[in-house]
Amino acid sequence: MSTTPDRSRLRFDRATVIEETAERCRVRVTLALGQLIFQNDEEQAAEGNGPLKAAAVAALKAVQQAAADKFTCSLVDLDRVKALGKDLIAVLVDVKFEGRDLQVFGSCPITGSEIDATVRSALNATNRFFELAMRE
Q1: Tens-digit pLDDT profile for residues 34-66
Q2: Listed residue (112, 117, 63) closest to 90, CA to CA
Q3: Spatial CB neighbours of 21, under 8 Å, sequence gap ≥ 6
Q4: Does residue 6 belong to any structural domain of this protein?
Q5: CA-based end-to-end distance of the chain
Q6: Which of 4, 6, 27, 64 would be 55's cystine partner, CB 3.0–4.6 Å?
Q7: Does residue 47 sit within a domain?
C-alpha cells in the first residue's frame, strides 16, 4: 500500500462556519489536491439548512475551480436522510460535462460535523467527473 497522497483526487481539508449576522452565515471550504489548495466561500441564511447549503455550494465551487472549469456543477437539493440505519447528508447536483447535462447524487454518513459531512457528500457526487476532467 502506498503512503503517497493520490494527486488525482480532491481531498477534504476543512470547512469553517463564519457567522456574519444573526440572519446570514458564511462557510469557507478548503480542498486539497496534492500540495495545491482550493478554497471557496458561500453565504446563505443562518437558519434551517442554510449553513449546510452554503457548505455544499462552496464545496462545488472549489471542485469546479480545481478542475479548471472543465465541468460545471450546481446544487439542486440537499437533505438529511436516514437510510439503512444511518444518518446521512445527501445532495443532488446538476453537472454539465462534455456537452451533457446530468444529475448525480452524493451522500456521506454523519459521524461528526454535519457541515463536514455535507462537503464530503458534494465531493462524493462529483469525484468521478473530477477524475475524468483531470485525465484530459
Answers
A1: 999 999 999 998 888 999 999 999 999 999 999
A2: 117
A3: 46
A4: no
A5: 27
A6: 27
A7: yes
